[in-house]
Every structure is written in structure tokens, then in C-alpha cells.
Amino acid sequence: MDQPPCWVTVELNPGSSAPPPGGDLLHARAVGATDTLHFLFCSQGAPTLLLVHTNSSSSSLTVNWTQFEARNVSGSLKVEPESSILYSSAIVFSRLLEYDDVNDTADPTSDLLPPYDLQNFTWSRLNLSADSSQLKVSLDGVLPRATRSRFVLELQAVGGADPLSRVEVRRFIDDEFTPSIFKMSRWVSSGNRSSEVLGFLQWKPVAYRRADPALEFATPCRHSDPRPQTVAASALIRGFYAEPQTNGLNVSFGLAGEPFYNSTKFLSWTVLLGSGSPPVDSFSPLVLTLMAVGLGTPMILLLVGGVCVCVRKRAVAYEQIN
């Protein structure tokens, strides 16, 4: 089904007369016929991506910059009217950990180096759709601090009453270049006593060791089980949520025997944050063609064979006897 048309506007540091010293605030607003999705990204404190879904096509963002930069009071960032908010969720990139995998076990429980300060990193731009935002996390040219470096990214899901709470792993057919069965991890939120999915964070359990996401440069990644945590220091979380509920998990990159980060000094991983149920993957045209050929050819052969047998039998039945 086609998505209804929507208007997307993007603004940097809305309402601020000068660039804030602590880091920029990006606001993207996707307006539909009866609702609006607000996507906000800010690297003041721990880098954070916030999604707010409202049932109004005229909802707007207001920021009290003095309070927002001080990070000492909630309510400095609002989506109004507040009564129009249907759902909100935020993803906090709380820590990036590096460890020296001396024994090539891909077990990040020991030899951890001090975490990186992620607000000092340069972050990729957002790719927006009608109901979700895609963010790519890339380590490009970061000098390793060990001879066999691997990385772990700590993520926190923050919400009001219904933060992302459980991870589902689904199988699907998606890659038209190498048609096969793949997996998709979905960190989802459900309302109390309801099976309806309110929001999600979705990713393929694979990262890439080069900017070109080719299969030969793919490396698996794993996630831990979500558990309650104390939210990291984040200007967006502090400004928007009065009583945030937080769950966290770790995503580790690479398995035993896989090349280390040192081999290319590059690592990229992509996530999709959205409202409602995660998108359902459909078959690509090439996969459908292969299925049609694979299933259709035997049927055609059976059909032609059946016709030939019938014709032969009819010919035998009407053959004159000498």
C-alpha cells in the first residue's frame, strides 16, 4: 500500500540566534494529513535520536535554550500541544567501548579500554521516510588503541511509560544480489496488556569493514538482552522527559576468527528508529523472477508433458485397425 503524502521540513537549532556551544540540535518534521512525526538529533551530552509522534498536523517544537543548555531541568524542550503526543521514544548512544581481543575470542568481558566520548565524534546525516528515521554509525579512520581491536556500542532506549523492552529476531528474504534468508533484529515497545507494537529500533545483525557494503566486507554483530539502566547524561532526554524509563543493551561487532578493526580502520552499522510496527520486507523483483522461473518451469514442463500424453492417447484411440 502506498504511503500517504507528507511534507518534510528540516531546521538546525530552531529558535536559537547563534550556534549553541555544546553542540547542534537538528529537527526534522514530517507532516501528514492528520499527524506529525518529529525527529530530533543532538550531541550535547550522549548523542541522542528522539522521535515524537502526534495526532496533529500542526504540532510544533519549542526550545528554551537557556534551560536546555544548562541541562538541569526537564521541560526545556517541548512538542506542543502536549495533549497531541501519541508516542515518543529515544535512542541514546551512551558509550563506545574498545577492547584488545588478544586470544581472538570476541568476548568483550576483559581488556576493556576507557570509553570514547561520543559527543566529540562527527555523526552521519539522517535518512527520513514517512514513519521512520535511519541513522548510520561509522568509525572511519579512528586510530585503534590495541593491536587486535574490536568494538562494543552501548545503546539505551528511553521512553515515558512504554520504552523499547524486548528484542525479536525475524527471518526474511531481502538481498536481490545474493538471494537468501537473512535475519533482522527488532527492539520493540508494546503498551501494557497489549500486543500492539508502538515503536521500534530495527537493524540487520551485520556491520561492514569498508564504506562499500559488499558481502565480502561484512562482519556479524551480536546484541545482549535489554535490561533496566540509569540513563546517560543527554540534553535531549533531560529537556524532554520528566521521568524517563530506560533499558539498555550492548551491540558487539565481530566474531572469533573475523578480521580485527585494525585491518581496515573502518566500521559501519545502520539502525532504523520508527513509530508503529516495523516495516514488513517484501520480495525484490529479481527474487520474484527467480521464484517464478524456479516454480513455473516445472509446472510448464508438467503441463506440456500432460498435453503430449493426452494427444498421444487420443491418437492411439482413433487409429484404424487394418
TrEMBL record:
UniProt keyword annotations, A-Z: Glycoprotein, Lysosome, Membrane, Signal, Transmembrane, Transmembrane helix
TM region positions: 286-311
Membrane topology classification: Single-pass type I membrane protein
InterPro entries assigned: NCU-G1
Function of the protein: Required to protect lysosomal transporter MFSD1 from lysosomal proteolysis and for MFSD1 lysosomal localization.
Subunit structure: Interacts (via lumenal domain) with lysosomal protein MFSD1; the interaction starts while both proteins are still in the endoplasmic reticulum and is required for stabilization of MFSD1 in lysosomes but has no direct effect on its targeting to lysosomes or transporter activity.
Entry similarity comment: Belongs to the GLMP family.
Protein name listed in UniProt: Glycosylated lysosomal membrane protein
Protein source organism: Liparis tanakae (Tanaka's snailfish)
Lineage of the organism: Eukaryota, Metazoa, Chordata, Craniata, Vertebrata
Gene name linked to the record: glmp
